[in-house]
Batch of 2 targets.
Target 1
Amino acid sequence: MAEIIEGIYQLLTPFPEFSYDDAKALRRQLEEHPRVTKGLPYVLPYLIKSGGEIALVDCGWNTDNAYKALEIGMQEHGSHPTEIEKLFITHVHPDHYGMSGRLKQLSSCEVVLHEKDAEFIAARYFAPRPLADEMSLFMELNGVPTVSAPGMSMGSFGMLDKVSPVPPDTEVKGGETFKVGDFDFEIIWTPGHSPGHICLYEPNRKILMTGDHILPTITPNVSIHTQTHGSPLGDYMRSLEKLVDLDVKHVLPAHEFDIRDLKKRIVEIEEHHEVRLAEMLRCVDRGGSTAWDVAGRVKWATGMLADFEPWMQRAAVGETLAHLEYMFELGQLSKVMRGKHLYWLPV
Ligand SMILES: [Zn+2]
Ligand SMILES: [Zn+2]
C-alpha cells in the first residue's frame, strides 16, 4: 500500500465482510467518489519504519483475512508482523484493536494504549456478561420499551470471536513522546468517540494520525453508554479544538482516505453537530421526553428508528443521549427521574 513519506506507510486491513481485494478497490473508488457505503469496508493501519525500528498504529479485526492483508502490506515495505516492536492503538474498538493479542503473541511488541480505554478492556472483551445486564437497565432508564431492550443489550456479542484482546504494556495519558527511529511521535489525548482515544502527531514531518477522531466524510459515532462518563460530545468538541491549530502536512485517518484540509474538516464536523443539536432540541417536549422518544423523532440517514436492527437502535439512543447530555452541559436542557425513566426538559 501507499508510502506517505519515506518511513511511513499506509496499510489496509479488510472488515470481516470484505475480501482484501474488494476492500482495496473500494479504497480507490471512495477517494475518487466519496459516498456512503453499507458498513465500513476497511481500517487503515500505519507502518512506521525508521532506523531499524518498526512500529504499527492500529491493526484490524482479528480475522485470518485481515492478518493476511497486514502481512502482505508489511512485506511490500520489507517488514513482517513478527518484527513489530511497538503497537499504538488509537482506541479499543474492535476494528482498531482486534488483532492486538495475535500480534503481541507473534512479536512480543509493546502495546501502547490510553489509560481510559485500557480501563474497559476487561469488561468489554474478557467478561462481557455483566456489561450486557447493565446495558438492559440502562436502556430501560432511557425509555426503551422492554420488548426491544433485551435484543439491544445483546447487540455486540457477535464480534467477540473476532477480537484477540491483550492488556497494554504501556498506558498513556496524552503528552508523552515516543521515538521510532528518526520520528518523534507525540500522543494527543482526544476523548469523545472513545474515552481514551488518542491521535499521534509527528511535529518535524507534520504528520497527524487521527484514528476515528477525524475522518474525511464520516462523522464518528459519539455516544453515551454504560461505560462512558460525563459528556462525550462536549469532550469530542473540545478534542476537535485541540487539533485545529496544529501545523500539518499529512492528515492520516483510520478509515476512508487522507484528509486534505484539516481545519476545513473540523469546521464541517462542528457545523454538523450544531445542526444536529438544534434538531434534537426541537424534538424534546415541553413536558419532557426520554432519549428513546427523541431518537424516534429525529431524522436518521439510515431510516426510521422503529425499523432499525436492535444494535442500530442502541447506537441511535446512545448518540441521542450524547447530544442531550451536551445540551444539559450547555444549560439548554434539564433532566429529571420519573419512576424508572430519565426525562429531558427544555430550560
Ligand atoms: Zn472507533
Ligand atoms: Zn474505526
Target 2
Amino acid sequence: MRLKGKRAIVTGAGSGFGEGIAETFAREGARVAVVDINEAAAKAVAGRLGGQAIALRCDVSKGSDVEATVKATLDAFGGLDILVNNAGISHVRGPMTEVKEEEFDRMFAVNVKSIYLFAKAVVPVFRRNGSGVIINIGSTAGVRPRPGLTWYNASKGAVNLVSKSMAVELAPDKIRVCALAPVAGETPLLPTFMGGDSEELRAAFRASVPLGRLSTPRDIANATLFLASDEAEFLTGVVLEVDGGRCI
Ligand SMILES: NC(=O)c1ccc[n+]([C@@H]2O[C@H](COP(=O)([O-])OP(=O)(O)OC[C@H]3O[C@@H](n4cnc5c(N)ncnc54)[C@H](O)[C@@H]3O)[C@@H](O)[C@H]2O)c1
C-alpha cells in the first residue's frame, strides 16, 4: 500500500484519467474525495471505491465551490495530503480563429484558473502540515504543440509551467508540485482532440506514438501514484511525459 493513511482530492474524477487515479489511490490505501462537476458520475465512482471515498460536486473554475470542496474534505478526512488537479476540457480540434471567445474563457477557467483557486485553498493547509503534494495534469500538448488545438495547447503549456513555478516557490514549505504530460488517451475527451471519432483518426494518432498506442487511465494513474507517493520525495517541478515516446 503505497498511499496508506494519505488523504487526497482528485478533481474530474468522475471519468477518464481522474477516475483511474481515484481508483488507484484508493487501492493503495488513500481516502479519496472524488470531485466532479458531474455529481452523478462522482457518486458512481465513489460508490465503487467504498468507504474510503466521498463524492463532492464542484465546478473547479468557481472559487466558492473550490473552498467548499476543500472544507468538506477536511471535515470528512481530518486533513489533506495530496491534491490532483485533473479536471480539464478542450475546444474541438480546428482552426485557431474559429474558437469562440466563450469557449476560450471557459477552457482557461477550468484548465488553469482552477489551479490558482485550489492553491489558495490548499497551500495554507499544507503549510500547516509541513508537507503536501500537488499533481497537475498537463499534456504533451503543452510540450510539443500540434496544429488544430492551439488554445488548448496554450492552456496546458500554462499548466506545465505553473507546476514548475509553484514547485520552486513552495519548496521551502516542503510542498512538492509536479505535472504529468499525457499523450492522447482513451477517454471520452478523445474525439474532441481528434476533431471526430473514426478508426482512421485513431490510427493516425497511434502512428505518431513510438510505442504504438494511445495512453490509458491506468498509465496516467500509475505515474500519478508514483509522483504522489513518498517514493518521489526528492522530485518536484517535474513535468513527466507519459506518452510512449511521442515528445522525443
Ligand atoms: N484524454 C486525453 O487524450 C488527454 C491527453 C492529455 C491530457 N489530458 C487531460 O487529462 C485530464 C482529464 O481528461 P480526460 O481525458 O480524463 O477527460 P474526461 O472528459 O474523461 O474527464 C474529465 C472530467 O472532468 C470533469 N469536469 C469538466 N469540467 C469540470 C469542472 N469545471 N469542474 C469539475 N469537474 C469538471 C468532467 O465532468 C469529467 O468527469 C484533463 O485535464 C485533460 O486535459 C487528456
